[in-house]
Amino acid sequence: MGYNRTDDANIINKRYMDSILFEERLVGSVAADTETEFLGERFSMPIFMPAFSHLNNFGGRSLTGLEEYSLAAKELNVLNFVGMVENDMFEKIVATGAKTVRIVKPYADNGKVRDQMQFAEFNGAFGIGMDIDHIFGMNGYDICMGEKMTAQSADMLRSYVEASKLPFIVKGVLSVRDALLCADIGVKAIIVSHHHGRLPYAVPPMMILPEIKEALKGRDVRIIVDCGIASGSDVYKAIALGADAAAVGRGMLPYLEKDGTEGVKSCFGHIRDELRYVMSFTGFSKVSDIDDSALRFTR
C-alpha cells in the first residue's frame, strides 16, 4: 500500500519472529511426528495452504495456480484454503479432492456472500468463512477486483454461522476483542493475521497470539496463524505461542510458479521436515505437546 519502511507491518512482523530463539532439550528426546488434528480431521502436518485468490495459469500449464496448490493439499493431506473466486472455479478446486475452506470476501452485495457460502456447502467444502480484514480501503470501504466491500457486524457474522452446518472461520483477527466476539457468535476457528500488512504498524500476529490464546481458554475455537510463515521454525514458534496450525502463503509462490503441484509439495515437505527437526531438538514428540517453554525472547 506504499507505506514507508518504519510502518511496514511485514518488516515489523519479520523482525519480531526472528527475535524468538530456541533452547535445546535433547536428553530423552525422540524423533517427532507432525501429524495433527484440526476440527475433527487428521492432517499430516499443522501447516495449511493459504486463502489465495486470482492465480492464473503459470508457465502456460493447463491448470490454474489455485488448482495446482489444491492438488498438492490433497496429496499432502493438509487443509486447503481458497479466497476470492467465482463458483465455477471453486467447483474445480473441490474436484481436486482437497479438504477445502472457502473464505468469502465481505461483499457489499450480501446476496453474493450467502450464495458463495451456500454453493461451497452444497459442493463439498470442508468449511466456510470470511476475510474481515478486506472491509476497508484507503478511501473508505474497500474495492477489490471491482467488487465493493462493506462492514460486517457481529450479528451479520452470526447469521452466516447459523445458516450453515459447516465450521465457520474468520480470517483477519488481530485482537483479543475480535477473538472473543468470534467465540461468542459460534465461530469454530480464527486466522490471526494482518493480511500482509494492510494496516500500517499492525501488531505481529505472534506478538498478540498468546493473549488471544489465553482469552479463548475453555472456548471451542481453534487458532491458525499466517503472515510471513516460511519455515518449520516459524510454524513451531506459532504453535508454541498458542496456534493450532500455521498457513504458508507467499513463501510457497516461487515453488508454485516454477513447478506447480510438485513445487508446492517440495516446499511443504521442507517446512514439515524442519518443523519435525526443531520439535525433536526441543523435546516435543507430538504437535499437541508443543508449548512455549523452549522459547527465548531477545527483545
From TrEMBL:
It comes from Ruminococcus albus. It comes from the Bacteria. The keyword Coiled coil does not apply. InterPro entries: Aldolase_TIM, FMN-dep_DH, FMN_HAD. Keywords: Flavoprotein, FMN, Isomerase, Oxidoreductase. Pfam families: FMN_dh. Residues 1-299 form the FMN hydroxy acid dehydrogenase domain. This is FMN-dependent dehydrogenase, includes L-lactate dehydrogenase and type II isopentenyl diphosphate isomerase. Its cofactor is FMN. One of its GO terms (molecular function) is isomerase activity. The keyword Mitochondrion does not apply.
